[in-house]
């Protein structure tokens, strides 16, 4: 969830193995490793956190369209969905 909106739904193992939404990816990158020799690349999101009492109209990730258009839920062949323009055929060509 990001600002009260579900951005990704998946089975637990699949979500941890392959997060799709940029926010989910950033959250997963913040999980510390139990092995001190394993170094993870941390994803740091840029910008300020929007006011949750007055959330922006869009999503705030990756593209200009995200700031104005709420992404629809994109299902895959399993129980997984992701609400992200990067996985919508209408906007995918911009990546």
Structure at a glance:
The protein is built from three helices and three strands, in the order βααββα. By secondary structure, it is an alpha+beta fold.
What would you note in describing this structure?
This protein has one domain. The protein has three helices and three strands, in the order βααββα. It has helices spanning 12-17, 22-29, 89-92; strands spanning 8-9, 73-75, 81-83. A hairpin with a 5-residue loop joins β2 (73-75) and β3. The chain is globular, with a radius of gyration of 14 Å. The two termini are 23 Å apart.
List keywords for this structure.
single chain, 95 residues, alpha+beta, three-stranded antiparallel β-sheet, 3 helices, 3 strands
**Main structural class:** alpha+beta
- What's the N-to-C terminus distance? 23 Å
Q: How is the biggest beta sheet arranged?
A: 3 strands, antiparallel
What is the spatial order of strands in the main beta sheet?
1-3-2
Principal-axes shape call? globular
Q: What's the Cα radius of gyration?
A: 14 Å
Helix content: 10-25%
Per DSSP, the total helix count is 3
Number of domains: 1
Query: How many beta-strand elements?
Result: 3
**Unreliably modeled segments:** none
Mean pLDDT comes to 82
What order do the helices and strands follow?
Answer: EHHEEH
Strand content: 5-15%
